[in-house]
Amino acid sequence: MGKTPSGKKAAAASKKDRLVTKKAEAVRREQQQVLSSQKQNVALMLDQLVDWCESHPRGLEHIHRSVMLGSYDALDRKGALQDDEANTRLPSYMNKFRLLNAPLALEVLALVVPAVAAFLEKLMKKGAKINKFQITEIVAFVLHVDLRSALPSKHKGQLLEWCKTRSEETDSPLKSWSSTSEPKCETWEDFQKHPLYRYWNFEHDSKDEDQSTFGMVRYLQTDIRLRLPKEIRGFPLKAPHLFYTNFVNGCINIPMTHVMQANDGDDSALPEQPLFFDAVPNAPATKLHTPEEQKPEPSTPPKKNKKGRNDPKTPESCRSSKSDPVSPPQKTPPSSSKRKR
Question: What domain of life does the UniProt record list for this protein's source (predicted)?
Answer without folding.
Answer: Eukaryota
